[in-house]
TrEMBL record:
Superkingdom per UniProt: Bacteria
Organism: Streptococcus panodentis
Pfam families attached to this UniProt entry: Flavodoxin_NdrI
Ranges for domain Flavodoxin-like: 7-162
Lineage: Bacteria, Bacillati, Bacillota, Bacilli, Lactobacillales
Name of the protein described by the UniProt record: Putative NrdI-like protein
PANTHER family noted in UniProt: PROTEIN NRDI
Length: 162
């Protein structure tokens, strides 16, 4: 048989919420589809360990929490802090063209700034915002994103997918 279908999840997580979501999403996808491979690419760890960026060999999904400097996201407060390594990774080589879309995370208490950085990346790089979730995300968020990933990668849905 051919190689396993590989789903790649590129993410950054400063306080662990996005990492938790990506881990639970990976577990969920693998339980539904034991025949696929799910690769997690933690950008913060790569940078901390001094690993050089590389060009992605296959399509990936990016997961990005919003961290902004003050403001209200309308007149001011749209300056990204802490997560810009993800933009650098996406801008590296041909990676932007391999990004199928971005999943934003944040906290609705930030009102207009909710998940703003994911929207900014979508505009800058020209890929869609696929979904958004708050904090660590709920099971419903995981199921929704798993369904989107099945569609984007052409993974055949099975009974448990619904
Ligand atoms: C300093 C700071 C600024 C933040 N700014 C925003 C914001 O502008 N919009 C938003 O939706 N969430 C904002 N958040 C909430 C985070 O995006 C949210 O807690 C997210 O789950 C963090 O993900 P992580 O734990 O993977 O780092 C902010 C959090 C902090 C600590």
């Amino acid at each position: 048989m051919g190689e396993k279908m590989k789903v790649s999840l590129v993410y950054i997580s400063l306080s662990g919420n996005t990492e938790s979501f990506v881990r639970r999403l990976s577990d969920y996808l693998l339980e539904l589809h034991p025949d696929i491979e799910v690769e997690q690419i933690p950008i913060k760890d790569m940078v901390k360990e001094g690993q050089p960026f590389f060009e992605m060999a296959n399509p990936f999904i990016a997961f990005l929490p919003t961290y902004l400097e003050g403001g209200n996201g309308v007149d001011n407060g749209d300056v990204e802090i802490l997560t810009t390594d993800v933009a650098d990774f996406i801008a590296y080589g041909d990676n932007a063209s391999k990004c199928l879309g971005i999943v934003g995370s944040g906290n609705r208490n930030f009102n207009n700034q909710y998940c703003l950085t994911a929207k900014q990346y979508s505009e800058r790089f020209g890929f869609p915002v696929l979904a958004d979730f708050e904090m660590r995300g709920m099971l419903g968020d995981i199921k929704k994103v798993a369904g989107i990933i099945e569609d984007l990668y052409g993974i055949e849905k099975n009974e448990s997918s619904f």
